[in-house]
Amino acid sequence: MLEAAKEIICRDGCSGLRIRDVVERAGVNLGMFHYHFESKEHFKRLALQEIYEVFFDKLSRASKEGATASDQLRNTLFAIGRFVRDEREFYLAVFKDILNDDFDVFQFFGENMPRHVSLIKGLLKKCQEEGSMIEIHHAQAMPIVMGTVNFPILIAGAIERRCKSGKGVGKGKGFEIAKEHFQYPLSDRAISQRIDIILKGLAP
């Protein structure tokens, strides 16, 4: 049922999650849902938490790989980029929920975001201590590193989602260029290049 919920969230967002759709997709009856889960809100949180724990586990392992703090930061950012790339439909759907003021999604991110923010903040501090990064406040550095790695992925994912819908992405030369090039920012090579830009830009 949790896997079925993830598929529905990726398509319709948390706001579009219907328990009857979940049990139908999972091939179980409604009574089975009520036996295992307290409520729809509790179930939604469990589905989000399961996805987040996979994400955080990959970050945690990547943050320990590498001989220097700079290497560890690089590996962590690469893990983030690949995860966001592979789960881009989920992230786009959840951002839609955030824009729609979904209270449960806001609360979920409020409780979990400090975990990975703290991890990255610690790596930034280690890089500064080893001399591989300029002195910069983490509130300035975080948007730089996270935005540079992930924003092109989300834009590409949004264009991709629009193209898959069969409605196209709009009219005009700009849209045609977007359709032609949206795949490149999703590649491992492109993610790695963006990380190079970040590390060089923040180097002393």
Based on DSSP secondary structure assignment, what is the total number of beta strands? Answer: 0
Helix/strand order, N-terminal first? HHHHHHHHHH
Q: What Rg, in angstroms, do the CA atoms define?
A: 19 Å
- Helix fraction, binned, reads over 70%
If you average the pLDDT, what whole number results? 87
Task: Explain this structure.
The protein has about 200 residues and is an all-alpha fold. About 75% of the residues lie in helices and about 0% in strands. Helix 5 (about 70-85) packs antiparallel against helix 7 (about 105-130) and helix 5 (about 70-85) packs parallel to helix 8 (about 140-165). The protein is globular.
Q: In summary, what is this structure?
A:
This protein has helices spanning 2-12, 19-26, 30-36, 40-62, 69-86, 88-99, 103-130, 138-164, 173-181, 188-201.
SSE blueprint and pairings:
Elements: H1 2-12, H2 19-26, H3 30-36, H4 40-62, H5 69-86, H6 88-99, H7 103-130, H8 138-164, H9 173-181, H10 188-201
